[in-house]
């Protein structure tokens, strides 16, 4: 049984349909990349699986349990942690305080929270060095590391990362890739939502490509990468991924 199973998901924003019959799954300990350009529907998928947006039809199961219309806090308890796009740290709080907030559902079990924090510090020693620093004073790459660390504080079986590379410098993207690989090596599955094709190709076991709310390609990374349609369908006619990725990033970037 898959860890996350999304079947026939349809969703609207107001009257506008934005997801059409989206199906894919994430196995235990797997990295699955959900790729697509701006407006493809990636964030809406993330919000549907984490209970923040109610789909109009379709089904989402986590570890065999139907979570389609569950309260987001219950979904967190059952093992799904969603790191939303935009790297939202609490800027005036320290690194340690930001991490602690990631375990708010376990807030009273202080020893559990402390153990989880130490686990995050082992995965991200840079955060340990900066535990008393205010989050707002860190670089974009460090803030991304912090929000991922905060996402790990609920001890998820599945981490959903919405465009973690957006706006990061190439060196920070490389470091992010190593961090995500380390998280998977620790047994946590990752749904990696990205526009950065190279990062996805490097990390993912399987790829799912969304365009205009439809899954247009999915399969093992090797299969999808070899499909000549990927450049055309994902990036628009006539563009090759290598040429288009940096421009796509620029158009989408936020300060790092
Ligand atoms: N809150 C919203 N209200 C209305 N339309 C929205 C809202 N959020 C997203 N959309 C629309 O839904 C579509 C998918 O958006 P989104 O899921 O954010 O895509 P992505 O994350 O791939 O950029 C887009 O056409 C976008 O304009
Ligand atoms: Mg998005």
From TrEMBL:
Residues of the signal peptide: none
InterPro entries in the record: AAA+_ATPase, ABC_transporter-like_ATP-bd, ABC_transporter-like_CS, BCAA_Transport_ATP-bd_LivF, P-loop_NTPase
UniProt GO MF annotations: ATP binding; ATP hydrolysis activity; branched-chain amino acid transmembrane transporter activity
Region annotation (Disordered) ranges: 236-256
Keyword Nucleotide-binding: yes
GO biological process: L-amino acid transport
Protein name: Amino acid/amide ABC transporter ATP-binding protein 2, HAAT family
Organism: Microbispora rosea
């Amino acid at each position: 049984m898959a860890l996350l199973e999304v079947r026939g998901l349809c969703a609207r924003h107001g009257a506008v349909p934005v997801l059409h019959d989206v199906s894919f799954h994430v196995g235990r300990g797997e990295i699955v990349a959900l790729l697509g350009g701006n407006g493809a529907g990636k964030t809406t998928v993330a919000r549907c699986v984490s209970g923040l947006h109610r789909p109009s039809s379709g089904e989402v199961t986590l570890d065999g349990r139907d979570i389609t219309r569950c309260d987001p806090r219950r979904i967190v308890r059952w093992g799904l942690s969603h790191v939303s796009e935009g790297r939202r740290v609490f800027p005036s709080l320290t690194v340690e305080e930001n991490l602690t907030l990631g375990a708010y559902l376990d807030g009273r079990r202080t020893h559990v929270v402390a153990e989880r924090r130490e686990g995050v510090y082992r995965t991200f020693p840079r955060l340990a060095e900066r535990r008393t620093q205010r989050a707002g004073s860190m670089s974009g790459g460090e803030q991304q590391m912090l929000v991922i660390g905060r996402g790990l504080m609920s001890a998820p079986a599945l981490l959903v990362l919405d465009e973690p590379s957006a706006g990061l410098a190439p060196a920070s993207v490389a470091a992010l890739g190593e961090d995500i690989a380390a998280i998977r090596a620790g047994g946590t599955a990752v749904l990696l939502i990205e526009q950065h094709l190279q990062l996805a190709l490097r990390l993912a076991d399987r790829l799912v490509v969304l365009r205009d709310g439809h899954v247009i390609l999915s399969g093992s990374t090797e299969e999808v990468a070899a499909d000549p349609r990927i450049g055309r369908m994902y990036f628009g006619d006539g563009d090759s991924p290598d040429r288009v990725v940096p421009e796509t990033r620029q158009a989408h970037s936020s300060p790092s």
